Amino acid sequence: MSEVSLAQEFTKGLWKEIPPFRLVLGLCPTLAVTKAFETGFGMGLALTFVLVCSNVLVSAGRKMIPAKVRVPCFIIIIATFVVIVELMMQAYTYPLFLKLGIFIPLIVVNCIVLGRAEAFAYKNGIGASIADGLGMGIGFTIALSVLGSIREIFGAGTFLGKAIFGASFQPFTFMVEAPGAFVCLGLMLGIMNLVGSE
Amino acid sequence: MRDIIRMFVVLAVMGAFSGGALALVKSGTAEKIEFQQLKFVKGPAIQEIMEGSSNDPLVDRFKIKDGEVERSFFVGVFDGKANVAFEAEGKGFGGAIGLMVGVNLETDELLGMGVTTHSETPGLGARAKDDPSFRAQFKGMSLNQPFKVMTDGGKVDAVSGATITSKGVCGGMNQGAEFYKKLKPQIIEKAAAFAN
Question: Which residue is closest to A102 within chain B, CA to CA?
Answer without folding.
Answer: B119
